[in-house]
């Protein structure tokens, strides 16, 4: 995650609408395509090293799931767009990885853009990846910036025919992908929560140093990034769930409501974390300032204590000819005694006023 | 209540949708099932130690109320789900005790998730428990994490045929359960209110110590937890009340409006408490800082008072050969007198400026 | 008004829904019932000391207005509820004086709960009273905690046939009661406004003492109480005005719009007052802190002024054998002159920098 | 503009609804009525000193525009109300000049209440005036507190037949009046903007004195007054524009949309000004506090500089019998040199640390 | 961008509605008109130096795109308005360059007002330009304050027949213009983002000087200006996209949704930037204040360190006859040693307390 959110937003400016330009980092060396075909009865995986290789493949009757890893090959992406008859804007959005999360119904297919975050506790940074999906009749396309193995358990379940995945087809597959993506947020949020807790412990133990506030600032920005990605996704899922697209049957819609609930829960947790951090910071600043003030008062009290003592000794340092006390035998000791008494008296007073 | 809200949110990530996993602490040793059957004419309670024992039980014609205490026996929960033909997601939510409060209409039954809070004044902590309900035709299921006796008065009223409970059946029973749950919030809020009042008294009496702000922070988080649990419940009850489910008759809907009113009242009270706390803290910080400033000024005034006196005595400590005053007979006493006059004058001035 | 809003909210918890319990202080010694019957042609008042006395009373054809003062006689209230066929929840709400303001349409009658505030400038406290109303066909019931004479002018106008009160019947009577209640808010707000103005004058005149901020806090809580009572009432009146209840004719609805306008005006005035107070406090704190800082700088400037003077006199107090200046004839006076010059120079500098 | 917004809100309390009472200052000596009659072909002005004089006047066929200046003659107002068959609440609102801006559709006529503000740069005060309008079929009534000449250009245009005013009749006239009123806000806001700019310049030039924050507070309250008057007017104009009143034809509605745009623009400008002021104040306080802190540090640095010097001279002022340095020939000058070196060294250090 | 937003808002006040007045700076010397005619088959550009020259031009069958640069020639603008039968308010808005962004459907044509911002990094200022458009049947009018070459790439694409521009006609052209305008915001926001990043780096490196906060204030105002221009545009585009105007076909509406997404993205980025700036400022102020407090404590610690030393030396400067220590041989050195020990002890203590 770049700290500065507008990073190169303008790279697309000057291009015509629908013109395909890959905007974003290239995160994998070689684009790769993985095709999965399944029906309630069978399951088959095919990997294509290049698009040329795939041209001769003849798909069967079941549901098609096309995984694309790596977005930098614009020509390949254009061909995919043409083959599945996607709107030029769809492919433009797939390639521009600074897209907002959204779900758009194009009638024949539904286009879904989501973001996934990975937290790296060592460097305390978030990395963000855009995952786009197209849900058509009997077909699901997924576009990822690199192979991250996120959907591997899903493929395992499909392969082994566990659950209702094979029976319910493309709509349920799209839901399952969303579910995996949303579950990843729980993981990320848990890790962020651990960092929050660690910082909290440190603050309360008074071990905060100069970098602590800066780290809290980074944490706040990370939570804000999650919020920005979750909020539009929540809206989009709600629209999808209440929509009337023929691509989703009622059975799948019930599951979408579950995804929606998870998103609401995530948003609330993010907000709770943000409140927690805000409270932590306030408490820390207030404690810090209080402590500093007490220290200054302590120092000032000490200074005040010495004032009368210094005055007295200064008085008896005067060179007047006639100062009777100077000639008293015990004058010196009496003065020392008086000083001690004054110091003790003031000390007692300040103690009673709780100023030390 | 864990202080860190995301605590182990991610435990479900990686499981398939609808796969049953118990998420949350195990709060009772042995799951227990209590079956209540009632009609306007009769009332009968049966306790089953295990699910096996219940399989032979033949229910009668009336309304069925199945109480489940303890959620850790996943196999038992799965069987209950199957027997009452509940959607897999319902049982998943029952077992995951970090669910948001919600009310979902599945057509044949309504699924209700609520949270209940108990305040422990001694440790100043809130404990949270999830209570799920399923309202079907002539049947109510309740799932609690442990037997807490919350619904005992309700069972007594049913047993003794007091009120309209027996006559109005399952819908009214579900309302009564909600009513008990909402009433518990009033109790919790009263106890929190007592803590707020105690803190307020302490702050105004100037007895706040280092832990006070931390305690206020905890209190704020507790109120926030209540708010988070009440807000979605309010929405859900409103949706239920205005919905068209055949499981609730008009007579019961009027009572639901009453529950809704209570929830609004609770939310307002929570917000009022939060305003009160915010005001208390502001007042405290402002008073504190004001007092600290006055003390610093007082000390600085004292220091300033000694400045000219020390200068004078220092001047007459100089060793110049020709300093006529030194040879005056009353020089010493005159200087002492001048010092006293200066001190008195400054003291008077500071008094008039209200600087002490 | 209790300072702690949740005061004994939980007293109702544990009771069955619809069970009548009087919650709140008992504010009058003896419950009293005043029955008014009027038609365009006649007007008649009857006072009943007890409910028993009223049982024999045979009402005429016109509009009935039943005033109940004092709510503690639960049996009497229950009988009234039964006689006018009110829902158990209505009577429960009448008796629970911590109800939110609301207007509920029960079909045959409309139930209205409002709160009235009296400000006592001497003790600077608000007292709150709940006034409930039931508007039925040709009948209006009002329930007050004590006889306060609020509706006396209304009764006078009815008695003397002034205005359209007699002609327009129960709906217009309910409106008139609401109008009186809303007008009372204007009075209360004016009195609070006077207190605000008095505090403002005091703050600007620099006469704020320790209690001022606490008093402002109380004032803020009072305005918040008004806001809490006005906001739901506004919503309720709007719903009533736009509703389709047959109990209100179009002529009365126009008047309700006027009440609605007044409520909006009141809410805006409350918000304006709150802004005013917030601004006052900010201004005060800023002025206060600025003044304190200036005083500290003034004191520090004085201390700084004495530093070089004390150093010089200290230098000439050293006991070196060879210090030529000590033996100059005018050495002492030259040194005094140099000191004066330094003091004057620094004083001029600080003056130019506007540090005194 | 009174600084205290609730000023005598309660004066109407105790009066019956619809009872006419003039609430507000009397701003003109003698109420005056100006009647304008116009049709596409002709235009005629008649001034009546009293209502009696107007009774004999026989209006023609065209559009009637009745201007009333001065509201204190309650009897006259009542007669106007009766003659044009206005609802009692309309006349009550006309007379109560603390009304919120609003537009009410009474079927046969539309009642419009607006406020106009004049800014007096000399005294830096806003004066507020209520202008009420009634738009009926072929008739427009305007009620102003005093003759201010606001509508004079409009009358000129009507008289000289410029624009479409004569052709489009009463609806367009009402729009034109609203347009003039809204344009006056632009003038007021420009003048306030000049004051904001002047204050800004002063703050940045460091010429802020004690009164500046108080003046900013007044400015904020003035902007808030404008906002309070504009906000409901915006809502009202939108309702009117989208309404279906037969009194406004489609041609006029297009113009109303323009008024609506102006109101939105005004509101945004007010909010921008408020943000600007808030930013100014924050910047000023931050600069102020920073400067004060630097000054205190500067003074403390000076004090610290003198500490070691005073100690050294104090040491050589001790009266020990055996202090070898005292007998060195150049002891005195060496000590002076050491002092100078210490001062220079510390001065250099503080300089490097940028503490002066 | 004027820093003071209301700059001469009132210039239009006093003019009749629909009266044409040019409000705003004159930004180009000579108004110029560029007419483009195109159909799927051909493309033709004609430049007119004056309106007179254009009168003889006979347009062909295809789509007409009229570019007007420079708005000061009111007579010319009036003629354009008449020739295309535009509502007087449209031309008034075109000429008043302080218009809010908006899209108005006049039935036969749609009127669009937008603002474009250019950021000048050197002077760190934003310049704002209003671009108005009218989309009619087969005709698009654009009004710019000066020729800026923004639409040149668009004209190139049209000229060379690239993309679908020629085929899709006027609606798609209007969309393309909006797209160019919105893309310009990305460029501006990127440049602002660079400034934000530069400031951030400077703040973290501790190189902030007096002007930094003022510069941040300017930046905040610039982001606010963007927000103010984007917000209503977003609303307007949404209304247009969901509207039913016959001037836009379904194919173009899909593209409008893309513009809408960009606007939402821009608004989120602006808000993110504002959060970032707010966080930066808070962090800076907190760091600054913390550092200042540490410096003051350091200085006060030094002062406190010298207190006891000065007292001791002062004591042995007293002139008592009988002070045994003065006569000790090593008295002087013992006292120096004691002083050193005290200083070292206090230094160690302050070190352990981390006060240096």
Automatic annotation (TrEMBL), chains A, B, C, D, E:
<comment type="similarity">
    <text>Belongs to the CorA metal ion transporter (MIT) (TC 1.A.35) family.</text>
</comment>
<dbReference type="Pfam" id="PF01544">
    <property type="entry name" value="CorA"/>
</dbReference>
<dbReference type="InterPro" id="IPR004488">
    <property type="entry name" value="Mg/Co-transport_prot_CorA"/>
</dbReference>
<dbReference type="InterPro" id="IPR045861">
    <property type="entry name" value="CorA_cytoplasmic_dom"/>
</dbReference>
<feature type="transmembrane region" description="Helical">
    <location>
        <begin position="298"/>
        <end position="318"/>
    </location>
</feature>
<feature type="compositionally biased region" description="Basic residues">
    <location>
        <begin position="1"/>
        <end position="14"/>
    </location>
</feature>
<keyword id="KW-0460">Magnesium</keyword>
<protein>
    <recommendedName>
        <fullName>Magnesium transport protein CorA</fullName>
    </recommendedName>
</protein>
<feature type="region of interest" description="Disordered">
    <location>
        <begin position="1"/>
        <end position="22"/>
    </location>
</feature>
<keyword id="KW-0813">Transport</keyword>
<feature type="transmembrane region" description="Helical">
    <location>
        <begin position="330"/>
        <end position="350"/>
    </location>
</feature>
<keyword id="KW-0472">Membrane</keyword>
<keyword id="KW-0812">Transmembrane</keyword>
<keyword id="KW-0406">Ion transport</keyword>
<dbReference type="InterPro" id="IPR002523">
    <property type="entry name" value="MgTranspt_CorA/ZnTranspt_ZntB"/>
</dbReference>
<dbReference type="GO" id="GO:0005886">
    <property type="term" value="C:plasma membrane"/>
</dbReference>
<dbReference type="GO" id="GO:0000287">
    <property type="term" value="F:magnesium ion binding"/>
</dbReference>
<dbReference type="GO" id="GO:0050897">
    <property type="term" value="F:cobalt ion binding"/>
</dbReference>
<dbReference type="InterPro" id="IPR045863">
    <property type="entry name" value="CorA_TM1_TM2"/>
</dbReference>
<keyword id="KW-1003">Cell membrane</keyword>
<dbReference type="GO" id="GO:0015087">
    <property type="term" value="F:cobalt ion transmembrane transporter activity"/>
</dbReference>
<comment type="function">
    <text>Mediates influx of magnesium ions.</text>
</comment>
<dbReference type="GO" id="GO:0015095">
    <property type="term" value="F:magnesium ion transmembrane transporter activity"/>
</dbReference>
<keyword id="KW-1133">Transmembrane helix</keyword>
